């Protein structure tokens, strides 16, 4: 009986998988859910825009490829990480916006941190330009309840080769919830 | 199709699987066969010996063996089969447990039915004992015991009749005690199971008597069996209709659960085809449209018995599985 | 599962399920007499954040094997649209029913209500594994322990934390104080005070099981009527 059942399941699974195999052995990993279909190409529509983008990003790289000793800002590299792109010259402007009067005026670039001069809504709005709410919810339901309350960068580190929050262990994830919410309760709702 | 069969046989709220349905089925047969045997014995022309009647012979085999078979299934369905003795030792720890009282019932039923069989087949058993274990006749005071039982024959049969009916309703109460499943938690369930147990008992007895003890339409008791069958099947039909209509008058979950059970999906198929079609309507129709001559043929007798058994087994499976599909 | 979860959510909105604030709590307290304590629990769904710290704490403390659990936190479908969506959380665990179907059906007396505490528990070695209790429990919180082969479920940490004089593991671990545990017979206990202050409901109360698991409903957002 068991054996019969098992073999039936096995067979039906095989049949279900055939079209998948035929379609070129594409492995759909969980991470792919988060990658927007449009990709980084949506930033530019024509050659002129691309040239402007390259120019802007080169200006970022020029200073930030080495440590900024005065303000103790470590050197920034994004090569290889999910949000970096060689084609787009590290892709800085995609998230941080154009340089503007930076560094004379810090507000002119969008920066991602709890203490950043960029307002929370604007910080998180940058992420939402590519990542749709549907994808976010699919990847992690807590996006729904945290989006308006904390900045994405509190959990996500996009300059690192691997975003540390992704595929976090169950234990650490729970600890994160507990510690964070505990401290909120301690400080009566003030972050 | 494959997918839906998987879903029909494995779902989250399913606790009791098919062995329980078989268990309920064979207990019903035992109860029904016992009732039939008593009926036939009571109606038998005084000249004829009960021990010679093929139907009574068949019942005498079915009654104890089906209970034993059922208990074996039950024991092996436990997660700890080796601990089954605790059910017997601690059976009175919880006086209101349906299953606990079932265990008590099995023990009393088994003892009394064995006594009855010993009484009915006294001659045959005595010859057997005399040939194979002549010493037993003397040492154990068996003859004295036999005489004792013979004295209370009427009373014993009366008690057994009650026990057999109790066994029939027990199979229903076992499930209807579960208020966690609306379809199972129905007061008509014990009656329904008693009725279908009777039909399956009669059918199984006829089947066995015809195939092994060369019974036929002329065997005494056969007409009686058939005369009993009809009203029982009608009452089964009535009880099923009452169940369906009653649940539609019931609370929200009653409605949801009966709707999920009979209006679509694998188990609805089992219900309409197996229970209603094969088990009830087909036998009733066959009985209406066929001539007396056909009805008296062995082929007819056998096929209607098989149909009834399939129908009753379908009912057990349907109630068990469809019942557990919708929790309260 | 899916079906019952949806059912639960639909039911959650329905007013029929709710006992009026405090009143239900007090009436239960006055009508039932069991010698000694009568432990109960509150899960405040308005405070719960669904972190499942309680789930893991329970598993560790009570050595619950993988594949089964005494406690689950069930998350609803999202209510409302991003970025205003939120969720309801439902604690799935033994309700410690005062009229416990699992105890009533057990043929060997392995399932029992502890007279001193009102806690519903299982004598593992008396259990034969007939699974009648698992079928009988309307809350579907019982399971067969894959190691002992006996029926098991939450026992308010009766033999672990409670025996050591501590609060149940889930209560201890909750960062939100969403869980309140205590003696319903003691009018000064935190649980009785909370029951008197907050609107509470009990799940499937209409089945007559008299559950001692109280819940503070999280009703913000849409109410289905
Ligand atoms: S919730 Fe289930 S296991 Fe717990 S006492 Fe009630 S019926 Fe028993
Ligand atoms: S009271 Fe103890 S056993 Fe029950 S859910 Fe909490 S931690 Fe688990
Ligand atoms: S630990 Fe507390 S907040 Fe977290 S899921 Fe459990 S009850 Fe909810």
Question: Which keywords apply here?
Answer:
heterotrimer, A: 191 residues, mainly alpha, 43% helix, 0% strand, C: 225 residues, alpha+beta, 3-stranded mixed beta sheet, two-stranded antiparallel ribbon, 9 strands, globular, disordered N terminus, binds iron/sulfur cluster
Q: How would you sum up this structure, described in words?
A:
The complex is a heterotrimer of chains A (191), B (328) and C (225). Helix content of chain A is 43%, strand content 0%. Chain A is mainly α and 191 residues long. Chain A is globular. Chain A starts with a helix and ends in a 5-residue tail after the last helix. Chain B has 328 residues and is mostly helical. Chain B is 78% helix and 0% strand. In chain B, α2 crosses α15. Chain C is an alpha+beta fold and 225 residues long. Helix content of chain C is 24%, strand content 15%. Chain C is built from seven helices and nine strands. In chain C, the strands form four sheets. A three-stranded mixed beta sheet of chain C has the order 8-1-9, covered by helices on one side. Bound molecules: iron/sulfur cluster (3 copies). One iron/sulfur cluster binds next to α4 of chain C.
Question: Secondary-structure blueprint of this entry?
Answer:
The complex is a heterotrimer of chains A (191), B (328) and C (225).
Chain A: H1 2-22, H2 47-64, H3 92-96, H4 120-128, H5 133-139, H6 142-146, H7 170-186
Chain B: H1 2-9, H2 18-43, H3 54-77, H4 85-89, H5 98-120, H6 122-132, H7 134-139, H8 142-151, H9 153-176, H10 189-212, H11 222-249, H12 252-262, H13 266-289, H14 292-295, H15 298-325
Chain C: H1 2-13, H2 23-31, E1 39-44, H3 53-61, E2 72-75, E3 89-92, H4 101-105, E4 111-113, E5 120-122, H5 132-136, E6 143-144, E7 151-152, H6 169-173, E8 179-183, H7 190-197, E9 213-216
Parallel strand pairs in C: 1-9
Antiparallel strand pairs in C: 1-8, 2-3, 4-5, 6-7
The complex binds iron/sulfur cluster (3 copies).
One iron/sulfur cluster binds at residues 94-97, 100-102, 120, 137, 139, 141-142, 153, 209 of chain C.
